[in-house]
Amino acid sequence: MNAGARKPILSGLRVVELSAFVAAPLCGVTLAALGADVVRVDPPGGGIDIGRWPVVNGQSLYWAGLNQGKRSVAIDTRSVAGQARVTKLITAPGDGAGIVVTNLPIASWNSYETLAKQRPDLIMVLITGKRSGASAVDYTVNAELGFPFVTGPEGHYGPVNHVLPAWDALTGYLSAMAVLAAERHRRLTGEGQLVELSLADVAIAVAGHLGFLAEAELVAQPRGRFGNYLYGTLGRDFLTRDHKYLIVLALTPRQWTSLGEATGQTRRFAELEANLRLDFRKEGDRWSGRREISELLGSWIADRDLANVGRTFDEKGVLWAPYRTFKELVATDEFSSAANQMLSELEHPVVGRYTATGSPLRFGAAANLPASTAPLLGQDTADVFREFGLDDE
């Protein structure tokens, strides 16, 4: 098959999404960006996340971003007729159909057991806050996990929340993998199944893989706060002469050597190493000497403008980056469809023209889709009803 005739990697897959907020919608938008037909069902007037900030011209950018490439259907599931319509959408025939993703409360009509009676090979991915089914969101999960007590400046008392809903994001992507894994199992065996995962379990799993939980069990002293220092290695923020912030890291022996060569401080670093009786080729020792190293490095950076520091670091292969605001990022040349094919200029009927993101995955043997505008709430209802034979109900 030539490149022009290639289909998206998930062409032929159909998913019905009953969702709100982040995790389940992110699962759906991830699949839609790869070519799946994702039909999101909301109540007339929108669900609980229809107006979530940020908002432009009365339109939630949050909702628009999480629903790119989907089809939007408005159905009142409080009525028996509405429940019957959604059931028919979910259990419709087809090899790639019969898949539902939800993070909404389950009732008797949309339980896995009830829906599977209509389609025995049904796949349902059910996202909950906690494994028990109890309510929880990213921010409450994070509060219970421990990260707010290692986030923030040294000496700060009390928890510090972070802005990124990391557990929602990870759960959304993991849910997309769950859909594909369960669909593969169905193709091989003919069996459908209920797949359950919770935000809390995802958070605990990641914290476990990164060593936070084993450290808490095995090390007597609890992990403290270290501000902008990167724990266990060398990395932190610095300020240039023209009052620009940048981050500098040395995670490997080669990066450490490059840093000394770029700043002309190889000899002084060696003297410091000897005085502290450390070996800066080791990450742990660079961590132990982080304050002294940062004092030398900070003085060198403070005497130079960002452009000069950047050129020097790039020439020597130093690992670094400037700090940017969101405003500064979107004003750069690299944030354009010409520089990055993941980005597309879209025209939204309410929001206006803006740059949207597609899938970061790039397939060599399948079509890679550009980003597409999110539908307006319910705009595909009539088309979907006709397609599924619901227009006469």
Describe this structure in words.
The protein has 393 residues and is α/β, with parallel strands linked by helices. The chain has two domains: 3-208 and 335-387, Crotonobetainyl-coa:carnitine coa-transferase, domain 1 (Rossmann fold); 245-322. The chain has helices spanning 23-32, 61-66, 80-90, 112-118, 138-145, 166-189, 199-209, 212-218, 253-263, 266-276, 283-288, 290-302, 306-316, 326-330, 381-387; strands spanning 14-18, 37-42, 55-56, 59-60, 71-74, 99-102, 123-128, 193-198, 234-239, 245-250, 319-322, 343-348, 352-357. The protein is elongated, with a radius of gyration of 25 Å. It starts with 13 loop residues before the first strand and ends in a 6-residue tail after the last helix. The model has no long low-confidence stretch (mean pLDDT 96).
CATH 4th-level superfamily of the largest domain: Crotonobetainyl-coa:carnitine coa-transferase, domain 1
Q: N- to C-terminal separation? A: 42 Å
CATH architecture type of the largest domain: 3-Layer(aba) Sandwich
Helix content: 25-40%
Largest β sheet strand count, sense and barrel closure = 6 strands, parallel
Structural classification: alpha/beta
Q: For this structure, what is the CATH class of the largest domain?
A: Alpha Beta
DSSP helical segment count: 15
Instruction: Count the domains.
Output: 2
Which geometry do the CA atoms define? elongated
Task: Give the low-confidence spans.
Answer: none
Tell me which oligomeric state these chains represent.
Answer: single chain
CATH topology (fold) name of the largest domain: Rossmann fold
Radius of gyration computed on alpha carbons = 25 Å
Approximate strand percentage:
15-25%
Strand order of the largest sheet: 5-2-1-6-7-8
What is the averaged pLDDT score?
Answer: 96
Number of strands: 13
- What is the ordering of alpha helices and beta strands? EHEEEHEHEHEHHEHHEEHHHHHEHEEH
